[in-house]
Design a protein that fits this description.
- The protein has 4 helices and 8 strands, in the order H-E-E-E-H-E-E-H-E-E-H-E.
- The chain has 170 residues and is α/β, with parallel strands linked by helices.
Length: 170
């Protein structure tokens, strides 16, 4: 398994390195799914969706009306063509940390981000989701989000038959 990871890392790293030599500048912005969930506070969410006639529908979820119920109501008002959604995490709900000034291979990045989190924060790695930030420079940067903040949104999506297609950090 170690040899396979090394070969995949080598291939990924070289392909990314060669691609950055030819594609300086910004790439296209990530596509947002027709349905978007924004975490506003611990148990509050703003859910937006495009209806079939491309009008924007906004619903709020809170402790009084859970996210799962809001997603079901929204699906009745605006059945989504695609069963994908994006989750938006506001600035005060995550932190970003740079690991290295160079782009690291995926398997090394995951291990190093977990080690960095353990060594430089009081957080337990089992309580946090780590995401590699795709930015235009060639550094390795990660965002950390507590599972207690993020997992309820993922579970509500799963129970509503939605697939989380992306995470966006403000």
């Amino acid at each position: 398994m170690g040899v396979v990871n090394s070969i995949n890392d080598f291939k990924t790293w070289w392909l990314d390195t060669i691609a950055t030599m030819f594609h300086r500048g910004s790439g296209p912005a990530p596509q947002q799914a027709p349905l978007s969930i924004k975490l506003t506070s611990q148990n509050d969410y703003t859910v937006t969706a495009l209806s079939s006639n491309d009008t924007l529908i906004v619903e709020n979820a809170s402790e009084k009306q859970p996210l799962g119920e809001t997603l079901r109501q929204l699906n009745r008002k605006a059945p989504t063509r695609e069963r994908n959604c994006t989750i938006q995490v506001p600035r005060n709900r995550f932190f970003v940390k740079q690991l290295a000034p160079i782009k690291l291979p995926p398997s090394q990045f995951e291990k190093m981000a977990a080690l960095d989190l353990i060594s430089s924060t009081p957080l337990n790695a089992d309580d946090v989701h780590l995401y590699q930030i795709a930015n235009n420079d060639t550094s390795s940067t990660y965002a950390a989000v507590k599972k207690s903040i993020f997992d309820p949104a993922i579970e509500a999506c799963r129970h509503s038959g939605l697939k989380v297609s992306g995470v966006m950090f403000e």
